[in-house]
Amino acid sequence: MKRLMVIAALVGATPALADEGMWTYNNFPNAKVKEKYGFEPSQQWLEKLRLGAVRLAGGCSASFVSPDGLVMTNHHCARGCIEQLSTAKQDYLANGFYAKTQGEEKQCPAMEVNQLVEITDVTDTLNKATQSLTGKQYSDTLKAEMSKLEKACSNGDDKVRCDLVTLYQGGKYNLYKYRRFQDVRLVFAPEHAIAFFGGDPDNFEFPRYDLDVTFVRVYQDKQPAKTPDYFKWSANGAKENELTFVPGNPGRTSRALTIAELEYTRDVSMPKTLMYLSELRGMVTEFQKRGPEQKRISSNLLFGVENALKASKGRHEALLDKKFFATKVAAEQELRKKVDANPELKKKYAGAWAEIAKAEEQLFTLRKELSYIEHGQGISSSLFNIARTLVRAADELPKDNGQRLREFNDANQPALKANLFSPAPIYPELEIARLTFSLTKLREELGTKHPFVKKVLGKESPEQVATRVVKGSKLTDVKARQALFDGGKKALDASKDPMVQLALLVDPDARAIRKKFEDDVESVVKKNSELVAKAKFDIYGTSQYPDATFSPRVSFGSVKGYTEDGQKVAPFTQMSGTFEHATGQEPFALPKSWVKSEKVITGSTPMNFVTTNDIIGGNSGSPVVNKNHEIVGLVFDGNIQSLGGEYGFDESVNRTVSVHSDAIIEALQKVYGANRVLEELRPGSTKVPPVKANPAG
User: A single GO molecular function, which one (predicted)?
Assistant: First the structure.
């Protein structure tokens, strides 16, 4: 692992430097962009950017690239859909997919696309409701008010999603209203071998040679949706030093956390996460050796685990970097010194850091039970998740909206039901393996004498419990889930399904530890983080960007290489390098379609490139656009140095890695003969040459 030398600015203490920042659309630094790049985005320009960029509800970003609902995202963001549509006889992950006609486009079982259409600042409303409240009363009131605002916003319309977004750790609150598309259909996907060429060894590295792209289409009333706010394709592609914008949905950053929170992450939670992921990777790797079908059905799980493991290693290394951590300590000390120097500010804010530190100490005592009983590390299974959702829905839905667990409020119900009743396949053999692993970890971490472990396992082994509840469950049948959901608590209590019985058995314990966490830790951290944020506002103003929250943001930057270990890294790779990089053995084996097309591909075509845009996980699938709102690339990764970006940003080495727009066109035309997609991206395109190799249709 390369050492991360993140020389970040004192985050939160001074205005963001260089190209740093994942900015909200209603607080974008227009003047700063003009000062550095000579272009000042107007609010109208930003609005078009916002409407063209969309969010995939599962945790990625995407964009409209035609007026007829065509959406571009990463292959790895659509892997779930591609895997779910595959069978042992027709493996679209391995062979690719191309719908030659609209009628051949296949509906994804559980994909949702969200387009942000409205932002409302509701900070004053929530501050007024929670004024002078603390602890559980503060937390309960805040959740109730948030649910009330979300419910009023969506007004029972399934085509609308409303999310109350917490910004600046509670310093501000915005209500985001989305247009929801739940009928999403697969149009084109290349083979996994080229979409993730280089595999885990090349992940978070550069130079790269990936065609990590997939096209889907959103439908309304069984017809392609009309999407007038889309990005046109650039005729020239990305050029060195060109100004670039990345609109997307960065998942989470932790740049504004207190030192107490960062220390807990560095010393406690991150090492435990790394150990868990490492062992889970070993389990899935061994499962794949059982046979080709086992490899196929678990490939998406392994991809996610390996990606999370490598990302977590990079983040942990950033926190272990003494120079970097010292900048975080210095920033907090400087802020606290300014607060203490002002009697009025001291009275309002000085105690916040100590309260957060106490809450982190409490979290340490709750960590194991919270992780293994409530957060799923101890009972990990798709079937169990379905059973627990059914059990909790029966308890929560009869309650007043504001009194429910947040995931069951009215605004979240359309997405919850879509997932609950998804026809996506569930594989019993993989379920047993996952559940056996997690139950084994439950026993290891909590100990055989723990009452919860005794309750779950009794005299059985983890494998015996897993086998019994998976093989005996009928929850693979969507109709069975629907019947239990419709029947409510009475039907669930009477159910003989062993997975439902397991969920009923453990839910009281899980709820109890969750309540203790929310009352004693979460509420304290939220309230006092809000005070820290307000202290920053009072001292430094509101010219800062908030931490990422998997809500729409936009970053700016430019196409630019960097220096690593004394060597200059050029900003572009070429398609010819893809073939030079190939060895014929996984994960450096090209698919047959590419091998056959090598002589017709223009080798000098840019393949991947890097920019100084500030991104984080969740930005995968984001478009890279120029100042004319034209597609010049598709974000799919960051370099290894960017992994510390959760905690800080260093423009000298942090880079966004993207597929070049020219490479996408070259591949669609010369490798796949995907005329229909080409015509949508570039209306009036010249006739494509004879097809060399098609992915499976």
Answer: serine-type aminopeptidase activity
